[in-house]
Write a structure and sequence with these properties.
431 residues, alpha+beta, conserved putative lor/sdh protein from methanococcus maripaludis s2 fold, Elongation Factor Tu (Ef-tu), domain 3, OB fold (Dihydrolipoamide Acetyltransferase, E2P), 34% strand, disordered C terminus, coiled coil, transport, transmembrane transporter activity
């Protein structure tokens, strides 16, 4: 082979190699573009899925299954109210601080916190050695009084027979009155300590005295322990009788003229469920409370329950007349994080959803999306709207939406609790 042929053959080999490398690179770029296009389409679908994952959407079948009913905000003639806040309290005569009249060692505590007790029931037993001396003084005074009483009776007889002297009679009468007063004072003191006079007279002297409950009620905090020293004037426990619990509401000056004794009050406990408590105004203070331009209005609770505790914050709705107002069924209102909401049909969200899914598809994908679009036609979108509530009567409750709603807006009148649980939980795509 000559040199010219050898050079031509090498050039041909190089040209073929260049074509092969170009073809391989072209295929690689096409594969990458295809993968990128597929990944972008997948990301777009995922993004669209995530975009609608926050939407609260139910099909007609789902609504029928859980019993969701759609209706309108109605106009009802309900009681006009004045809204007032306050606290639960008990009258002073229904609360007691347990103190001891004399200091001593606590030998026995007969009750526990939260226990129901009756008036006169022994709560604590106190031991004090000074009580022995008091009982001895009583026995001595009682014995001496017997002699003085006999002498006084003898002088009375002599005076009646004009046989005695006036001076002796006067002395006997003075001694009798003084010793009787001393004896009565000792008896009264022993009775206050809870020591039986008849037991002392029979020779049963004790160093322990009982501390009894002054009222019926429930034991609160016990601040003493067995073996500790109880001092006079220092409370060892407290008792509260919630049977007479009432509410102290603050009514401001602008609403004060509407409030009258005897008006009905509906109470709601703060941070509680929609449980309502009925009451009635029985007293109105005649002075402002702490320069706040608010007056304390007292309302008695008709049927106080065991779960009512003094100090609880309440909201009172005082009925002052009637008015036509927007109202919905009580079941239409749900609570979440201390706020109240209703669910309205969101037509704008449905229109946007239909517009987004209005594009055409090819082949099997087109048939699949047609089925999904048919389902979308039967689905309903919901939006949660915050409201403030007022009086509730005959199964309806007054509402005032925070945001303005259309006059013909549709709302969920039954089954709102299911929507609340669905909106509070993880997002779920309706498709």
């Amino acid at each position: 082979m000559n040199a010219t042929s050898y050079i031509k053959r090498n050039i041909a080999v190089l040209i073929c190699s260049a074509f092969i490398m170009t073809a391989i690179n072209s295929c690689g770029d096409t594969t990458k573009k295809t993968e990128a296009t597929t990944e972008a389409a997948h990301d777009h679908g995922a993004e669209g899925h995530e975009e609608h994952s926050e939407a609260l959407e139910l099909s007609q079948e789902q609504m029928n299954a859980v019993g969701i009913v759609i209706g309108n905000i109605e106009q009802k003639n309900l009681t006009a109210v004045v809204k007032a806040s306050g606290q639960l309290a008990v009258p002073p005569q229904n609360a007691a601080q347990i103190n001891v009249l004399t200091g001593g060692i606590i030998r026995k505590i007969n009750v526990i916190e939260g226990q129901r007790v009756s008036k006169g029931q022994v709560l604590v037993t106190i031991e004090n050695q000074d009580l022995i001396r008091l009982q001895q003084d009583y026995l001595t005074a009682k014995s001496g009084f017997s002699f003085i009483e006999a002498e006084y009776n003898r002088q009375q007889q002599l005076k009646a027979a004009d046989a005695g002297t006036g001076k002796a009679h006067q002395q006997a009468e003075a001694n009798y009155n003084a010793e009787r007063a001393k004896l009565k004072a000792l008896e009264r003191q022993l009775q206050q300590y809870g020591i039986s006079i008849s037991r002392i007279a029979s020779g049963n002297i004790t160093s322990q005295v009982p501390v009894t409950a002054p009222i019926n009620g429930t034991i609160g905090k016990i601040s003493a322990e067995t073996g500790s020293y109880a001092q006079p004037g220092v409370s060892i426990m407290d008792i509260v009788d919630n049977s007479k619990i009432h509410a102290d509401l603050i009514v401001f000056e602008k609403d004060l003229s509407k409030i009258k004794v005897g008006q009905k009050v509906d109470f709601r406990l703060t941070n509680q469920k929609n449980e309502q408590i009925e009451g009635q105004i029985y007293g109105i203070n005649k002075s402002f409370e702490n320069d706040s331009k608010g007056v304390v209005v007292h309302a008695v609770i008709k049927k106080p329950g065991a779960n009512l505790i003094p100090g609880m914050y309440v909201t009172g709705l005082i009925g002052v007349g009637t008015e036509t107002t927007s109202a919905v069924p009580i079941d239409a209102v749900v609570r979440s994080e201390g706020k109240e909401f209703i669910f309205v049909v969101d037509e704008s969200a449905k229109a946007a959803h239909e517009e987004e899914h209005g594009h055409t598809h090819k082949g099997e994908a087109e048939e699949k999306h047609k089925e999904e679009d048919a389902k979308d036609q039967n689905s309903v979108h919901f939006k949660k709207v915050e409201v403030t509530t007022g009086v509730s009567e005959q199964g309806y409750i007054q509402i005032t939406p925070i945001e303005k709603l259309p006059t013909d807006v549709k709302i969920v009148t039954k089954g709102a609790f299911y929507l609340q649980s669905k909106s509070s939980g993880p997002a779920e795509h309706s498709h």
